[in-house]
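Need residues for this backbone.
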């Protein structure tokens, strides 16, 4: 596996040797001084170029970066909206384990390039780019919720939970799991981010998709979160659903008290009672509530 320095040397050499590439930017975790370092980290690179078109679908040009395991070109995929500035990306996973997420961005659209707190300017051939501030994860820190955001999160969590119960009673396992993990869990994770934010003064980054949750949750809450990851059975999924409710309540109620929000205790009580009722409902039941 090529080292970090070898990869950076390669990335910069490719830019220096090509007059069309005028600047190189490093984004992502490798630009974040607070991110853990390991060999799975991507090289999130932006090449600022004088002309975008020659770089699009140029498979011969990308060969210089190494032997590919797999390539993705997200801007050519169906259903993807064009990005500001007409940016074009090559997501390159190499056979040696390294990965470069390379975005080609037209220099004349620089004012439309989204600011990123995780930014290091690696190369500026013309010396015209403003130096970015010292890199940090400040742009990825959680923000306190508004009363509306808190209400919407609670409402969606308890609104969708009966869908999971319905799917489990009907023995529609894929449907139930999709509702559990695709909707209910999303709201739980949002509440956990706010909880971590409150406990850290909104100064800690919980990580993409909660990858640092274990670091910031107390052991009891972390163990409860682990119980929400169900195995492949109806019983385990029921248990996971109730564990989600317990964890959601455990973090949402103190959050509401702190910010002066209204936690929907009655929604919680009624929906939780309904979930218990459906779980106990016989399979030959003709009515939900006789």
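Answer:
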């Amino acid at each position: 596996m090529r080292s970090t320095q070898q990869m950076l040397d390669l990335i910069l050499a490719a830019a220096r040797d090509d007059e069309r590439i005028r600047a190189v930017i490093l984004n992502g975790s490798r630009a974040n001084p607070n991110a853990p370092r390991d060999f799975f980290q991507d090289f999130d690179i932006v090449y600022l170029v004088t002309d975008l078109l020659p770089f699009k679908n140029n498979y011969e040009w990308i060969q210089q970066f190494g032997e590919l395991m797999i390539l993705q070109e997200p801007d050519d995929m169906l259903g993807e909206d064009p990005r500001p500035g007409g940016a074009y990306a090559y997501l390159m996973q190499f056979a040696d384990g390294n990965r470069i997420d390379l975005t080609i961005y037209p220099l004349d659209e620089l004012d439309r390039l989204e600011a990123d707190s995780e930014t290091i300017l690696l190369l500026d051939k013309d010396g015209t780019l403003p130096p970015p501030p010292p890199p940090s994860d400040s742009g990825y820190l959680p923000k306190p919720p508004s009363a509306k955001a808190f209400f919407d999160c609670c409402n969606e969590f308890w609104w969708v939970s009966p869908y999971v119960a319905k799917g489990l009673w009907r023995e529609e396992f894929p449907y139930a799991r999709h509702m559990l993990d695709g909707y209910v869990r999303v709201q739980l994770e949002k509440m956990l981010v706010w909880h971590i934010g409150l406990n850290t003064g909104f100064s800690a980054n919980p990580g993409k998709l909660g990858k640092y949750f274990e670091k910031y949750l107390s052991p009891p809450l972390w163990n409860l979160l682990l119980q929400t990851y169900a195995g492949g059975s109806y019983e385990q999924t029921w248990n996971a659903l109730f564990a989600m409710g317990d964890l959601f309540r455990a973090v949402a109620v103190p959050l509401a008290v702190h910010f002066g929000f209204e936690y929907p205790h009655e929604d919680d009580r009624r929906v939780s009672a309904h979930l218990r009722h459906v779980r106990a409902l016989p399979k030959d039941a003709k009515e939900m509530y006789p």
